[in-house]
Amino acid sequence: MGQPRPARNQSAWWRSAVIYQVYVRSFADGDGDGTGDLAGVRARLPYLAELGVDALWFNPWYRSPMADGGYDVADYRSIDPAFGTLAEAEKLIAEARELGIRTLVDIVPNHVSDQHPWFQAALAGGPERELFHFRPGRGEHGELPPNDWPSQFAGSSEPVWTRLPDGDWYLHLFTPEQPDLNWEHPAVRQEHEEILRFWFERGVAGVRIDSAALLAKDPDLPDYVEGRDPNPYVDRDELHDIYRSWRSVADAYDGIFVGEVWLPDSERFARYLRPDELHTAFNFSFLSCPWDAGRLRTSIDETLAEHAPVGAPATWVLCNHDVTRTVTRYGRTDTGFDFTAKAFGTPTDLALGNRRARAAALLSLALPGSVYVYQGEELGLPEVELPLDSIQDPMHFRSGGTDPGRDGCRVPLPWDAEAPYAGFGGDPWLPQPAGWSDYAADRQSEDPASMLSLYRAALRVRRTEPGFGDGPLSWLAADEGVLAFARTDGLLCVVNLADGPVGLPEHSELLLGSGPLDADGLLPPDTAVWLRA
């Protein structure tokens, strides 16, 4: 299985951790059926240890009909048979920990699958209806939805209510297969605290909370009014009591939480990170920011400022299972990310995107706090524009076919350039495009100039240099279009986003570069370096 690596400060490991996101279905297929599974992950643990990550975050691996990629959970205490068994999950957690790698699991508290026993009992007219949001419709015969809330799928105009044969409607902010839970009911709260205990007792180190700001709803379920304060279903004050209760559970196991919290108000965002609530939250400002020095600096400054009052570490991420891959996004005219702007046929300069993605990797890994790396980013994988008949993402269908959906960043990984299906396993559940083997991990391992080699080197330096990770950041004077900052212990990071080469600050050592310096020792455009002063 490989050798365990020296670990950082154990008491606050999460403040500086590099956490690798595993989308199991697309990671590695151990049994040859075309679907990634826990056996595939276990077989690749040595690869992850060599990469140098501190923890793995798994997207939902629970029993699910997969109406929304596993975010429609039918049973939190069992593993979906497509992925393996609970016993295999327990082995994976233990084997990873032996290599110095912790495990985080995903909890989806806003909703469950329509196949969940609670909802099935509710459909049968049982008292379980109180665990969801069932309402009579409006109109003369109840034929209109109870309110006009918008779908949480960008670009979708479909209603968030579905009517049953008995005339009642139920709420689902996402797909009809994902009925929203009623968090005013004590049984809902008790069940989720027991789920947390279940996984902490199996050795997980933390929990990522999906759609963390959506759980609580205004009990009157009023119509949506843009700008209404408080919002009827986003960031309601009742949420904080829920997360305080959860924190007491996590503290008993020395576990941590990371929340998926999309909020424009930095003060309200910071409330989730108070010492008795969540430990960290995803930084979507940085993820969606264009490749622009001024806007990136603003995002970094605002992120650090909003975390400072509560003493929480920032998180940095370039891509995830919902977002256009970094190499592709940075090779486009519009280098930002917006769900509503996704379109088929968007031109991309992959060579330019690759240079920028390499520089962005060093930028993110030099910033204070923890970093999340989505599987395949370390291979420089581009977004795949899939054939229409291969797309499975409900976001595509709920947009009427105009949105490419999120499957383009979920194409199964290439491991072995000479093996069928690039070494993924069986015939992949999403098709791999021509040339996918060029990105294979085995080929990149032998190339010192590859994206994989860059990530391995960066994580090695970050792990051995205590000045990286959590701690202060000081901006340095720099030319327009250049980001330059100092960390502790004399560590410097310089990123050139300008149109021409620039000089470097005084330094004693070049630790790592995303690309070579030019013949005059200048830093070329779209290149980053780590220096020792």
Automatic annotation (TrEMBL):
Organism for this UniProt entry: Streptomyces kaempferi
InterPro entries associated with the record: GH (IPR017853), GH13_cat_dom (IPR006047), O16G_dom_2 (IPR045857)
KW Cell membrane (keyword) present: no
Name under which the protein is recorded: Glycoside hydrolase family 13 protein
Alphabetical list of SUPFAM superfamilies matching this protein: (Trans)glycosidases
Keyword field: Hydrolase
A single MF term (Gene Ontology): hydrolase activity
Keyword Acetylation annotated: no
Pfam families in the record: Alpha-amylase
Domain Glycosyl hydrolase family 13 catalytic: 21-410
Record family assignment: Belongs to the glycosyl hydrolase 13 family.
Domain of life of the native organism: Bacteria
